[in-house]
# Entry
Amino acid sequence: MHRFLLFSLVAALCVSAVPFSHAASKIVAANMELVLLAHPKTIQNKTDLQTLAEKLEAESLPAKQAYEKAVEQFRSAEESAREAHNNPILTDLKKREAMDTLQQAAIRARNAENNYRRIVADMENQLRKRKDESVDEVLADIAKATKELAEKNGYDLVLDSSFRRAVIPIPSVVFCSEALDVTDALIAATKGDRATAEKTFEESKKIVDELNARREAALSEKGNEL
# Structure
């Protein structure tokens, strides 16, 4: 979504400068994903998000431990209730007491689980909000830099040549000569680091490829079962 908004904004800014009917329209392209990943704030935001995630995880630890303890107590009460039920020597009163203990343990475990789930959901919302805010800030800076670069060099349109798409993994620009690629110019304009961006991109691509491979293997396994 953010990448689509960036491409739309950049295109709109550039198209508004000169009509398509202009005989000498200058069209260039840039890998906006690399520009985004290379931006210094993107790199800093990654560190900040990791720090925030660690902080929130530490804050959620007591709730997690309480949940785990409640589960252990429930399992212990469940085993005791099973043994009491199968013990012919115990009175019905003792068996009912064991069942009551099990029910109470189940309630405590359920409450602890709900509390921990609520804390985790809140943590995820905080991280998502912080990430969206930081990405929006970076996109605004990139759009500004793109507009300034286009005006300075007389570009009428700056296209996004990023390869990854949400639906179809085909770039908006199928081919672009090096002479028309302004990716490095945009990275320089935003004081970015291309080497870091390419490393992050490859790491991300590897993770996506592994997830896709696992998904395909799981689907294939289900198909064989059928």
Observations:
- Residues 11-22 have pLDDT under 50 and may be disordered.
- The CA atoms of residues 121 and 143 lie 32 Å apart.
- The longest strand covers residues 27-30.
